[in-house]
Design a protein that fits this description.
The chain is of the alpha+beta class. The protein has two domains: about 90 residues; about 220 residues, Bira Bifunctional Protein, Domain 2 (BirA Bifunctional Protein, domain 2), CATH 3.30.930. It is about 40% helix and about 20% strand. The strands form two sheets. A seven-stranded mixed sheet has the order 1-5-6-10-9-8-7, sandwiched between helices. A three-stranded antiparallel sheet has the order 2-4-3. Helix 1 packs antiparallel against helix 3. About 30% of the residues are buried.
Length: about 325
Amino acid sequence: MDIREELQALSESAPARIAAASTMEELAAAESDITGKKSPVAAARRMLGKIDPDQRREVGILIKRVAVSLQRDIDARRSVLLLAEETADLAADAIDITLPGRGQTVGTHHIIQQVVDEIIDIFVALGFTVARGPEVETSFYNFTALNIPDTHPSRLETDTLYVDYGDDDEGVLLRTHTSPMQARYMEQNDPPVYVVVPGKVFRSDPLDPTHSPVFHQVEGLAVDTDITFGDLKGTLEMFAKQFLGKDTEVKFIPHYFPFTEPSAEMHAYSNGRWLELLGCGMVNPAVFENVGYDPSVVTGFAFGMGVERLAMVRHGVTDLRYLLENDFRVLRQFV
């Protein structure tokens, strides 16, 4: 079979193989066999120099015509296969616009921080300022300055977490309440004083539904001339109505705290029952003396509340641990 017969045979058989290629890989293999370096077209071009000069032009034209025709078929098939692949890719990546959108989840403060912020906002609106103190305290500010005697059980290691720090004979500890800031603030500021102190406190308590070794308090202190227990009751009743609702009822039950005299617990009627909200009382004159105030000139009241307890009362949470376990099913209810 001479060159012309081979080219004619190739031009008749190759189109069917090109059309049968169903993938780009199959088409590439067919192209290599039909027009590649080892194909009949390439072999005919190499043989062209050996052909009689009178026939060389005719054979050259034939080689070119066959090669161009087959390459056109290959390019056309390639376009069809590329389109099919693109269509398949688009179908695989298609978005069902009938599905609900996936919105971004917006972060928020933890429920405990939300309650702290709300308590502060209420008292700031009543004229109080905000102060913060150290979480690691000395025994003087945590106990002595607040008129807590040396024999008080709260000084024992069963109640208080002490730390090794220097050679302080009085002891260094993790504060058990935010009350030490009362003494610190009064040492540094002359009356009148209207301040609230939010912060974290620490005690040797087990973790159970109502206790935690780490929790949050907001302490309040008001010192001025002629402050009475009636001022204390009016201020805290206003707070309760702002925090729990304008129809909230409160009552004050006598209690004992070393740093206030007289002292009381404030209870609020919420969710069909009376609940203890906070402790309070008139500042003990001994506390004024410890910080350099003249108790014959100034009077004042103080109060302290547990933030976690207020959050539980406000939102009907029955187990303190729900607020601490970072369970999204719980926390997202307070977004």
